[in-house]
Amino acid sequence: MIPPVADRFVAGEDAAAVLDHVRRMEASGVKSICNLLGEHYQERDPADEDAAAYRSLLRDMPDSLDACVSVKPSQLGLQVGPSVFEENLASIVAVAEEEGRFVWVDMEDYTTIDTTIDAFEANVADHPEMGLCVQANMKRTDDDLRELVEYPGKLRLVKGAYDPPRELAHQGKAAVNEAYERHLEFLFREYDGTVGVGSHDPAMVERAIELHEEHGTDFEIQMLMGVREDAQVDLAREYEVYQYVPYGSRWLSYFYRRVLERKENALFALRAILS
């Protein structure tokens, strides 16, 4: 069982728990992106098991819920071999199409970018109910976006949570913010699909709203479970808002990442422990 100190950031350990959370969020106007926790598998069995769990979740989602899934390449076997990842991704996309559901593909560290983009492009032309995450901190993202805007689907822009080599990435908060805003402007101007604004930064969310009003481009705001949830509900009164909802038995390392990355999260955890 997930302890109360962690359940702010993780919906539960199984599909029933995450679907219960999805129902609660939908009642407040916020939609959900479900992510089964797991990554960096070195053997095929756990990758195949997680792919099967995603297929099962997609089949179990009630028609009344507006929810989708987001998968990590290393969770689907990328480090076992690119073909394992591609097979598992294709199997999930096929079930999602049968069920009328959307599939996001997360972006991981810099060594996986090319294979992840290739797999997305190989699937999205025939299965446009797909989206891909791109990271603003990577210097290559300008070129990647010029390629990706030619494809259907959705593109989620995040600032980037990994630690790539200095020569490959923008350094410092100001440089990453500048890149993020530049990429937002490009996507709202050039992309015919939907822009996923993956940010908790009020300035970036406000800039996205301004760009939407200027260009009319479809967009949605995406934030993590447990972070600025009041703002998520407030924004959902006027805009499409999705909450990224992790679940599963591998919750401990994810919880610690959330606690360490922001002072507010650490204070929350400390208060919960002391009470």
UniProtKB/TrEMBL annotation:
<dbReference type="InterPro" id="IPR015659">
    <property type="entry name" value="Proline_oxidase"/>
</dbReference>
<protein>
    <recommendedName>
        <fullName>proline dehydrogenase</fullName>
        <ecNumber>1.5.5.2</ecNumber>
    </recommendedName>
</protein>
<comment type="pathway">
    <text>Amino-acid degradation; L-proline degradation into L-glutamate; L-glutamate from L-proline: step 1/2.</text>
</comment>
<keyword id="KW-0274">FAD</keyword>
<dbReference type="GO" id="GO:0006560">
    <property type="term" value="P:proline metabolic process"/>
</dbReference>
<feature type="domain" description="Proline dehydrogenase">
    <location>
        <begin position="19"/>
        <end position="268"/>
    </location>
</feature>
<dbReference type="InterPro" id="IPR029041">
    <property type="entry name" value="FAD-linked_oxidoreductase-like"/>
</dbReference>
<keyword id="KW-0642">Proline metabolism</keyword>
<keyword id="KW-0547">Nucleotide-binding</keyword>
<dbReference type="GO" id="GO:0004657">
    <property type="term" value="F:proline dehydrogenase activity"/>
</dbReference>
<dbReference type="InterPro" id="IPR008219">
    <property type="entry name" value="PRODH_bac_arc"/>
</dbReference>
<keyword id="KW-0560">Oxidoreductase</keyword>
<dbReference type="Pfam" id="PF01619">
    <property type="entry name" value="Pro_dh"/>
</dbReference>
<dbReference type="GO" id="GO:0000166">
    <property type="term" value="F:nucleotide binding"/>
</dbReference>
<dbReference type="InterPro" id="IPR002872">
    <property type="entry name" value="Proline_DH_dom"/>
</dbReference>
<keyword id="KW-0285">Flavoprotein</keyword>
